[in-house]
User: Fold this.
Amino acid sequence: MKGPLEHIRVLDLTIARAGPMAVRLLADWGADVIKIEPPPRKDAQGNSVTGGRRGPDEQNLHRNKRSLAIDLKHADGKALFHRLAKEADVVVENFRSAVKYRLGVDYETLKEINPGLVYASISGFGQDGPDSQRPGVDQIIQGMSGLMSITGESEHGPMRAGIAISDTSAGMFLGQGILLALLHRERTGQGQWVHTSLLEAMLSKLDFQGARYTMSGEEPAQQGNDHPTQVPMGMFQAKDGHVNIAAFGGQMWQRFCDALNAVNLLQHPDYQGVGSRTRQRAQIKADMNAVTSAFTVSELVQRLNDAGVPCGPINTIPQAFENPQVQHLRMAVPAPHHDMGELHLVRSPINLSAYPHPTSLTRAAPDPGADGAAVLGGFGITAGEIAALQTAGVID
Assistant:
């Protein structure tokens, strides 16, 4: 089944994770995404961040794309790319500023070739400003954005999040920006430059934690597995493991105590209001653990959810994907690979009633340059021209 973006042609110049994340959004919903990459070297070991093309990281990032290997440092390679860009709807890149200008794939150059082009960029720190030329990777941004200062427990020092959250957030925001620019072009016929950075994305993702500072000067602190503002809400001890429980507010607190027959908690003089429970954060957690540790994980999940109190287990990644609700949602879907067979990758979380998720992804991630002849033929480039470009080493 084709998607809502089937009329959109995208040239993907991105590497690493953030840029490919943005482009994957377009590819998963039907855009014709052509990954432009250098001709593979025989001694190449794969991207240092995301590994080799046939590994799980790059397969998940580059599924539903086609690959064309062009040497952009070659004059004919640059000319070929300009020829493709003239007919493209979107170009996405995450080069350092000096690199994209040296290669001739910057916005100013390409908009002269194609005024309707949506040109999209991701950087570490932004396209201008005092840090704009600095290299930026996820962990550096996690630290600089303040995220690590509020993650983990204070006695253990700052802690990184368990995923590349600034990369993935920047990719998501750039994907949204591209769609906004395409809507603007549909109305006006005008292209534009869309850009974000890991730093901007991560500061935005701080959300209410950031607004606590910007509005009132409050400095959020590490709270470990407890919610920073809602009490009680966090991780609690069960007889055979741990669970997360959200019992904040008057009604939730009443339901929690009733479901677990915690009369002493309900009647405790220190816990007779939201404010008093918040002030007694450490004490209330200890007293709740004394109650919850008498029940198994499954008992707590059943009792509390039946009472309308959110409660869930602390799953491993395998347990998460084997969860019956996740199985029902079909979050892991097959993708056909010509050599490795059927791979299972993580589908888009977006659901559109007009475009139900297919039972399989269109294709697994291609080997570098695998679709060269077919891609160029689709741009009207003849077999003779393709052969000459191959002979000159411009394409693989």
